[in-house]
Amino acid sequence: VLAYVLYDSEADLVSPKAEIEFARNLIEVNKVKLSPLFDMRVKFDIDELNESVLERPSLVPLMTVDLIENAFKHADFHHPDAFISIVLTFRNGLLELTVSNKISKRSPLYKTKGGIGSKTLEERLMLYYPDRHELKRFVENDVYNAYLQIRLYEN
Asked: What global pTM score does this model have?
Protein backbone atom coordinates (compact mmCIF):
# COMPACT_ATOMS: atom_id res chain seq x y z
CA VAL A 1 0.00 0.00 0.00
CA LEU A 2 2.71 2.46 0.98
CA ALA A 3 4.79 1.76 -2.13
CA TYR A 4 1.77 2.43 -4.33
CA VAL A 5 0.99 5.70 -2.55
CA LEU A 6 4.60 6.92 -2.54
CA TYR A 7 5.85 5.71 -5.91
CA ASP A 8 3.20 4.37 -8.28
CA SER A 9 0.80 7.25 -7.64
CA GLU A 10 3.43 9.70 -8.92
CA ALA A 11 2.61 8.56 -12.45
CA ASP A 12 -0.03 10.49 -14.37
CA LEU A 13 -1.89 7.26 -15.07
CA VAL A 14 -1.84 3.73 -13.70
CA SER A 15 -3.43 0.57 -15.00
CA PRO A 16 -6.84 -0.44 -13.66
CA LYS A 17 -5.11 -3.64 -12.52
CA ALA A 18 -2.68 -1.64 -10.33
CA GLU A 19 -5.48 0.49 -8.79
CA ILE A 20 -7.61 -2.60 -8.14
CA GLU A 21 -4.68 -4.33 -6.44
CA PHE A 22 -4.12 -1.20 -4.35
CA ALA A 23 -7.79 -1.19 -3.32
CA ARG A 24 -7.60 -4.88 -2.41
CA ASN A 25 -4.47 -4.30 -0.29
CA LEU A 26 -5.95 -1.21 1.36
CA ILE A 27 -8.99 -3.22 2.42
CA GLU A 28 -6.81 -6.03 3.78
CA VAL A 29 -4.70 -3.59 5.82
CA ASN A 30 -7.83 -2.02 7.32
CA LYS A 31 -9.40 -5.41 8.06
CA VAL A 32 -6.53 -6.14 10.46
CA LYS A 33 -8.06 -3.55 12.84
CA LEU A 34 -11.43 -5.31 12.89
CA SER A 35 -12.78 -8.08 15.04
CA PRO A 36 -12.99 -11.37 13.13
CA LEU A 37 -16.72 -11.31 13.94
CA PHE A 38 -17.30 -7.93 12.25
CA ASP A 39 -19.55 -8.14 9.18
CA MET A 40 -17.17 -7.26 6.37
CA ARG A 41 -18.41 -7.89 2.83
CA VAL A 42 -15.96 -7.49 -0.03
CA LYS A 43 -16.51 -8.46 -3.65
CA PHE A 44 -14.29 -7.95 -6.67
CA ASP A 45 -15.74 -8.64 -10.11
CA ILE A 46 -12.94 -8.03 -12.58
CA ASP A 47 -12.98 -8.89 -16.29
CA GLU A 48 -9.55 -10.45 -16.55
CA LEU A 49 -10.12 -11.79 -20.04
CA ASN A 50 -9.50 -8.38 -21.62
CA GLU A 51 -5.94 -8.11 -20.35
CA SER A 52 -4.94 -5.24 -22.66
CA VAL A 53 -7.62 -2.95 -21.13
CA LEU A 54 -6.84 -4.12 -17.61
CA GLU A 55 -3.10 -3.43 -17.95
CA ARG A 56 -3.20 -0.22 -20.01
CA PRO A 57 -2.38 2.91 -17.96
CA SER A 58 -5.70 4.78 -18.16
CA LEU A 59 -6.72 5.58 -14.60
CA VAL A 60 -5.63 8.47 -12.43
CA PRO A 61 -4.01 6.92 -9.30
CA LEU A 62 -5.74 6.76 -5.92
CA MET A 63 -9.30 7.20 -7.20
CA THR A 64 -10.59 4.50 -4.85
CA VAL A 65 -8.82 5.53 -1.64
CA ASP A 66 -11.26 8.18 -0.36
CA LEU A 67 -14.37 6.02 -0.42
CA ILE A 68 -12.67 2.96 1.05
CA GLU A 69 -10.85 4.87 3.80
CA ASN A 70 -14.03 6.74 4.78
CA ALA A 71 -15.92 3.47 5.23
CA PHE A 72 -13.41 2.33 7.80
CA LYS A 73 -13.07 5.77 9.39
CA HIS A 74 -16.79 6.40 9.92
CA ALA A 75 -18.20 2.90 10.47
CA ASP A 76 -19.84 1.97 13.76
CA PHE A 77 -17.75 -0.98 14.89
CA HIS A 78 -19.65 -1.46 18.15
CA HIS A 79 -23.25 -1.69 16.95
CA PRO A 80 -24.53 -5.28 16.57
CA ASP A 81 -25.84 -4.47 13.07
CA ALA A 82 -22.62 -2.77 11.96
CA PHE A 83 -21.10 -3.67 8.61
CA ILE A 84 -18.92 -2.48 5.78
CA SER A 85 -19.66 -3.53 2.21
CA ILE A 86 -17.29 -2.87 -0.68
CA VAL A 87 -17.96 -3.98 -4.25
CA LEU A 88 -15.51 -3.15 -7.01
CA THR A 89 -16.18 -4.12 -10.61
CA PHE A 90 -14.24 -3.53 -13.80
CA ARG A 91 -15.65 -4.46 -17.20
CA ASN A 92 -15.10 -3.00 -20.66
CA GLY A 93 -13.22 0.03 -19.38
CA LEU A 94 -15.86 0.84 -16.75
CA LEU A 95 -14.73 0.99 -13.12
CA GLU A 96 -17.47 0.89 -10.49
CA LEU A 97 -17.00 1.09 -6.74
CA THR A 98 -19.88 0.82 -4.28
CA VAL A 99 -19.16 1.30 -0.58
CA SER A 100 -21.69 1.13 2.26
CA ASN A 101 -21.29 1.18 6.01
CA LYS A 102 -23.35 1.57 9.15
CA ILE A 103 -22.68 5.07 10.48
CA SER A 104 -21.52 5.51 14.04
CA LYS A 105 -24.10 7.31 16.20
CA ARG A 106 -21.38 8.49 18.55
CA SER A 107 -20.57 12.09 17.84
CA PRO A 108 -17.25 12.44 16.02
CA LEU A 109 -14.43 14.46 17.47
CA TYR A 110 -14.72 18.11 16.63
CA LYS A 111 -12.58 18.99 13.65
CA THR A 112 -11.97 22.47 12.35
CA LYS A 113 -10.90 21.08 9.00
CA GLY A 114 -11.97 18.02 7.14
CA GLY A 115 -13.50 16.58 4.01
CA ILE A 116 -10.45 17.36 1.90
CA GLY A 117 -10.36 13.82 0.49
CA SER A 118 -13.95 14.06 -0.72
CA LYS A 119 -13.40 17.49 -2.23
CA THR A 120 -10.19 16.38 -3.93
CA LEU A 121 -11.89 13.29 -5.37
CA GLU A 122 -14.67 15.41 -6.86
CA GLU A 123 -12.17 17.88 -8.33
CA ARG A 124 -10.05 15.13 -9.83
CA LEU A 125 -13.09 13.45 -11.37
CA MET A 126 -14.18 16.73 -12.99
CA LEU A 127 -10.67 17.41 -14.26
CA TYR A 128 -9.75 13.99 -15.65
CA TYR A 129 -13.13 12.38 -16.42
CA PRO A 130 -15.55 15.16 -17.36
CA ASP A 131 -18.84 13.67 -18.55
CA ARG A 132 -17.38 10.18 -17.95
CA HIS A 133 -17.98 9.72 -14.24
CA GLU A 134 -20.73 9.50 -11.69
CA LEU A 135 -20.35 10.00 -7.95
CA LYS A 136 -23.27 9.59 -5.60
CA ARG A 137 -23.21 9.80 -1.82
CA PHE A 138 -26.21 9.52 0.45
CA VAL A 139 -27.35 8.36 3.88
CA GLU A 140 -30.34 6.10 4.32
CA ASN A 141 -31.40 4.41 7.57
CA ASP A 142 -28.06 5.21 9.26
CA VAL A 143 -26.18 3.64 6.36
CA TYR A 144 -23.74 5.73 4.34
CA ASN A 145 -23.67 4.77 0.68
CA ALA A 146 -21.18 5.89 -1.95
CA TYR A 147 -21.15 4.95 -5.60
CA LEU A 148 -18.38 5.82 -8.04
CA GLN A 149 -18.39 5.03 -11.72
CA ILE A 150 -15.60 6.01 -14.11
CA ARG A 151 -15.73 5.32 -17.83
CA LEU A 152 -12.03 5.28 -18.70
CA TYR A 153 -12.40 5.72 -22.44
CA GLU A 154 -14.49 8.12 -24.46
CA ASN A 155 -17.11 6.57 -26.72
From this structure: 0.88
